[in-house]
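Deliverable D2.4 — example input (structure tokens):
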């Protein structure tokens, strides 16, 4: 794996949020899946880790955003972690995967990845995390990759073109979207390998 992506380990991340501003709006869900490689050089999703997150103190939550993603951040039965706890557990898991695969750093993979990276970095700064495993600005964007590979940039449509089942009723859950984005990323990378683009 270290030879495939210049010593970076791709880690698929999806966040669900209370708006579009990473510095002011609540981070409500996060999920991550490290990408692994078999002996033949083909990649596949690793083990998923995910958390529901309590809005940080003073966080803005746009009603239209939570209505769109279908999350009630204050539902009494919602089992949620503090942002600090969730971020530290995600980062600890990612660092373990980076070390285990002989890589030097993680690179975030996401569908419209800059959005997810912005919220991850803002949360890390709020929580004063010193050992952030993710590259601070580089990322792999499956919206761009799917546009190239399949002519589709919407996750559900790209998955359909890639032969991945996609249940729209499950969308906008960090866990589900991370799983589907990981499948999509692996399909594109493996297809490129089969076409002779990487040996």
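Example output (designed residues):
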């Amino acid at each position: 794996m270290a030879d495939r992506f210049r010593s970076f380990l791709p880690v698929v991340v999806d966040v669900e949020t209370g708006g579009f501003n990473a510095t002011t709006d609540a981070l409500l869900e996060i999920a991550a899946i490290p990408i692994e490689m078999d002996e033949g050089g083909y990649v596949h999703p690793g083990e998923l880790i995910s958390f529901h997150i309590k809005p940080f103190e003073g966080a803005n939550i746009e009603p239209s955003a939570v209505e769109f993603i279908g999350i009630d951040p204050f539902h009494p039965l919602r089992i949620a972690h503090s942002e600090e706890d969730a971020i530290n557990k995600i980062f600890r898991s990612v660092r373990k995967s980076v070390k285990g695969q002989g890589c030097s750093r993680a690179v975030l993979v996401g569908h419209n990845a800059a959005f997810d990276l912005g919220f991850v970095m803002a949360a890390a700064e709020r929580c004063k995390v010193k050992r952030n495993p993710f590259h601070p600005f580089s990322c792999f964007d499956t919206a761009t990759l799917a546009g190239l590979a399949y002519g589709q940039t919407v996750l559900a449509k790209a998955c359909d073109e890639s032969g991945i089942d996609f249940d729209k009723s499950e969308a906008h859950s960090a866990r589900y979207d991370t799983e589907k984005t990981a499948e999509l990323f692996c399909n594109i990378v493996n297809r490129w390998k089969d076409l002779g683009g990487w040996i």
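The longest strand covers residues 27-37.
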